[in-house]
Amino acid sequence: MIKAKKSLGQNFLKDKNILKKIANLSNIEDKVVLEIGPGTGNLTSYILNKKPKKVFVIEKDNEFATNLKNKFQDKLIIINEDVLKVDETIISKDKVTVFGNLPYNISTEILSKWIINLKDFFWFECLILMFQKEVADRIIAEFNTKKYGRLSIICNWRLNIKKICDIKPNAFSPKPKVDSSLLTFYPKKKFIKIKDPKNLETITRIFFNQRRKMLKKPFNQLFNGDHRVLKKLKIDTALRPQNLNLETYYRLACEYEKLRS
């Protein structure tokens, strides 16, 4: 019997009702699917039942990858790699639907990588992902709340995000110590264009590095005290980072790019 590895953040979803619910969240018949960290293949079975055109899975663990190959034979294309080192944009010519009970220890790193590396096109139709509830709460947090921060701003830039449900620890094996949340992410048709997404990463890192401090210091650090930017974006430097809405951060990233060009 193959056991989950704590070092890889493995907790496998076993609740059949929830597995079925996840597989039904998107119409994947005759479409290309990518599953991240399939582990024992519990969700994979439900995905295959929906008759997708092709199913890719990324599984870092060699033992699990071998087990998946034996279990599903030629029904899967197995990528036995670390998801953080895979270029998902070249996996398929078709846009993919991504499913993932992401390893909790690197879930934010995976999602941030996908968003920051987005080009002028989306390589996915939608993302259907599981996170620790605390992480999911940060992703969907609204400004003027304690959980609002870098993750909220980066994730909501080009994606419409919806919370589907919370999931209790007893739905997993082994049981995690925290609740989980299921989120869906769909590409936005309209969003503020930022030439290099890494500039948004820089802006949010510097502003939220001291989230309880007023905006004056990080603003001066980034914009050399240029009050024209403050006036244009109607920013009060006596506010704190959590008090600026999403759009203001995206516009700040644009102004930062102008300054550097």
User: Which architecture of the largest domain does the CATH hierarchy give at level 2?
Assistant: 3-Layer(aba) Sandwich
CATH class of the largest domain: Alpha Beta
What is the CA-based Rg, rounded?
20 Å
CATH superfamily of the largest domain: Vaccinia Virus protein VP39
| Gap from first CA to last CA | 57 Å
> How many helices?
10
Structural class: alpha/beta
Number of separate strands: 9
> Shape, please?
elongated
- Main beta sheet, described? 7 strands, mixed
Strand line-up across the major sheet = 4-3-2-5-6-9-7
Helix content: 25-40%
- Poorly predicted sequence stretches spanning 5 or more consecutive residues: none
Summed up, the domain count is 2
Structural notes for this entry:
- The chain is of the alpha/beta class.
- The chain has 2 domains: 6-187, Rossmann fold; 197-260, rRNA adenine dimethylase, C-terminal domain (Helicase, Ruva Protein, domain 3), CATH 1.10.8.
- The chain is 36% helix and 19% strand.
- The chain has helices at residues 16-23, 42-49, 62-72, 107-116, 133-139, 150-156, 197-208, 216-223, 227-233, 246-260, and strands at residues 12-13, 32-36, 54-58, 77-79, 96-101, 124-132, 159-167, 172-173, 180-187.
- The strands form 2 sheets. Strands 4-3-2-5-6-9-7 form a 7-stranded mixed sheet. Strands 1-8 form a two-stranded antiparallel ribbon.
- Helix 4 (107-116) links the parallel strand 5 (96-101) and strand 6 (124-132).
- Helix 7 (197-208) crosses helix 10 (246-260).
